[in-house]
Amino acid sequence: MLTGCRKRSWTFFSLTYRSVCTRTSQAASLVSSLPQSTHSHSFFTSQQTSAPLHSTLHFPPTRCLSRSAHCPGLMKLQEVLQVLEQLAPLSLAESWDNVGLLVEPSEPRPVKTILLTNDLTDAVMEEAEAMSCDLLISYHPPLFQPIKRLVQKNWKQRLAIRAVEARMAIFSPHTSWDSVKGGVNDWLAGGLGSGQVSVLSQALGGASHSHKLEFTVKSTEELNSVMEELKACDSETTLQHSAGRPDNSWIHVSVTCSDSALTPSVQTLLRHNAPSLSFSILKLEKPPLPGHGQGRLSVLDQSVTVATAIQKMKSHLGLSHLRLALGLGQTLESSVCTVAVCAGSGASVLNGVKADLYITGEMSHHEVLDAVARGTNVILSDHSNSERGFLTVFREKLAVRLPDSVTVVVSKADRDPLEVV
Predict the structure, then answer these.
(1) According to its UniProt record, where is this protein located (predicted)?
(2) Domain encompassing residue 308
(3) How many domains does the chain have?
(4) I need a labelling partner for 56 at 20 to 30 A (CA). Which of 27, 73, 269, 403 fits?
């Protein structure tokens, strides 16, 4: 994952939940539906970690979730994108990230070959071209900054041009894979064994309505007049009202509205300056999505020594070398009971977290010194090495949801640019 701003400040007054049971023709699963959200979240689960505080969503191993599975040899790009959205909704990505479909061919064609890579490089593009790849899923977005021109002198733009010329689509999931339950960070935490896993930076659900206006009116006529004007401000305005006094002489009204409708809605209420009308404004909390978010803290079921943790992570990541910083007063035989992980550049998420061991791809010199001074051990694998192994896990999750006519391949050319020499 790339480094971005993760600090949030919220003022919350009310929170409402409800759950609905959704059944589709492809799979039956329990989905948590937030009252003001239109997103349907479906997530894959981790087999290596356990999180007893969170409910787990299980999916049967269906061969395909697309109607194209019933049509031999054909699956459209948009249908593959729907499956990817079911596995890890893009709404889980960080606000600063650039995720989703980044390159789309002008002429649609059936998707027969999908290549998974951590980074899109020249070597990976040559691999994709050689196999006539239809869809390239690059974990890191190859296009991140705004583009004013497409020219050959910029290597990322050059790769995008080659993809367009080859009629190859490019999709990037990035921090949506980090955040989703059972995603990159759960996989990384599982390297040391099972444990009670919690999220370090909680993901929040989206909401179309962000404010609640509460006011009183003295008559039904006055209520109807106010509501007609409020509905003109926001077509999705919802009305809830009830009598608030024993003699029923006052009507208490609660109206929810979006950010964009807040100012005109308040102006509408101010225009109704009758002595009977008073109102308050409440900011609605965005409900948390249990099990989803950036970083993980695992309380291990069985503690390990620092030396054992190193060997386990080498095996888990498929590496012969890792970088280690021993915390103040720690040795290779010190016990590790709690481990905090964050794939990629994890310092912004791990900073200040109390744990025996930090595991991430990279941290700056001074960030490592800060952790060591607090007595926390640090294992660094280099950025993409903390993420790449998840591609094999995801390949299995994706393949069972696509028809046999679609081949999903993990890149052999993709590798971290740094190596120990």
Answers:
(1) Cytoplasm; Nucleus
(2) 184-203+289-384
(3) 3
(4) 403
